[in-house]
Every structure is written in structure tokens, then in C-alpha cells.
């Protein structure tokens, strides 16, 4: 087992809240405005959420952009299960989800969206998956939380919150769509 793998969830306890519902809403509002500003509008954008946490965030960002621009960018989802570098090592029975992209991504700007950026391996896998569907003009990365400790040279273009963590800690993002609440917390192993 890799030394960078997170400890099992059952041994983690909450240490502190990083974002409450209002904080998540503010972060997404800011990221949406930054995306529009950087890209001069929404006409050539495609937001692609990485399953699972990135998908509802991509949908929310599209709603925020629609509110600001009067037009929502197209939204899709990418499943990276078979693109992971540990698919057979760390996942005894990998469950493959669906990749759903809204039409062609070739020549358009794709904003990959995820909840937490850690080692960069998930993003690398998402990039590999995207390239199987075409060659975007550009790929940008938006994350709700950047927890540091990168193993690959991948950096986000848009960040809701940057927090330094240790390898023994974990960041958990709960979203209304999947967990019935909006909240992000820092967790660590229980002290004995």
C-alpha cells in the first residue's frame, strides 16, 4: 500500500471546519466570476466535473455563471476510475461510472472541477480521460479546496480555499446534493 493513501475513514475525527455552507457559496461565487473574467464570457466554456464531488460543484458554477452572464456554460462529467494509476492496486473491485460530455470539447476551453486537490493524480487521470474525447483548446482547473502535498506538477487556476495539511490528515467535503449539507472539514486520526 502506498504511503500517500489516506487512512481509513472510520479512524478519522473532525479537527476543524474549513468552510460552512455560506463559505462554500461565497467560494463558488468568486470562482465563477474569475472563470468568466479570465475567459471573456461563457460561450466557449465547458465545465466538466470529476465524479463524484466535482459534478455538483460544476453544476453550481454553471448556475452562478448563468446568473452573471445570462447564459450557462455546458456541463459534463468525467469518470476517472479506469485512468487511475492505482486502479488495480488500490481498488479491488473498481466501479466505473459514466463519462458524459456535452457535445464536442475540441477547440473549446474545458474547466475541470473537483472538490479537493491533493496529490494531483486524480487530475492527471481526468486529463487522460478528457483527451480520449478530443483536444480542447485549453484545460483549466477549478477546485473548492487545495490541501497541498502535490506529487505531480499540477496547480489549480481557481481555488476556493487553500489549506496546508499533513499526509495523516484528510479533507472531507459534504455537499447538499450527496450529503444533505454543505460543509468542508479537516479530519485527522484519532489520538490515543
Structure report:
- There is one protein chain.
- The strands form 2 sheets. A 5-stranded parallel sheet has the order 3-2-4-5-6.
- 36% of the residues are buried.
- It is an alpha/beta fold.
- The protein has one domain: Rossmann fold (3-Layer(aba) Sandwich).
- It is built from 4 helices and 8 strands, in the order βαβαββαβββαβ.
- Strand 2 (45-50), helix 2 (54-69) and strand 3 form a beta-alpha-beta unit.
- The radius of gyration is 16 Å and the shape is globular.
Task: Give a concise summary.
With 192 residues, the protein is of the alpha/beta class. The protein contains four helices and eight strands; from the N terminus they run E-H-E-H-E-E-H-E-E-E-H-E.
| Strand-residue proportion | 25-35%
Q: What would you call the structural class?
A: alpha/beta
Whole-number total of structural domains: 1
Identify the CATH class. Answer: Alpha Beta
Gross geometry: globular
Distance between the termini: 23 Å
Strand order of the largest sheet: 3-2-4-5-6
- Describe the main β-sheet briefly: 5 strands, parallel
> What is the CATH topology assignment?
Rossmann fold
How much is the average pLDDT? 90
Question: How much helix is in the residues?
Answer: 25-40%
Keywords, please?
three-stranded antiparallel β-sheet, 192 residues, 4 helices, five-stranded parallel β-sheet, Rossmann fold, alpha/beta, disordered N terminus, 26% helix
How is the topology of this model organized?
Layout: E1 12-19, H1 21-39, E2 45-50, H2 54-69, E3 74-78, E4 109-117, H3 121-131, E5 138-146, E6 158-162, E7 169-174, H4 176-179, E8 183-189
Parallel strand pairs: 2-3, 2-4, 4-5, 5-6
Antiparallel strand pairs: 1-8, 7-8
Helix pairs in contact: 1-2
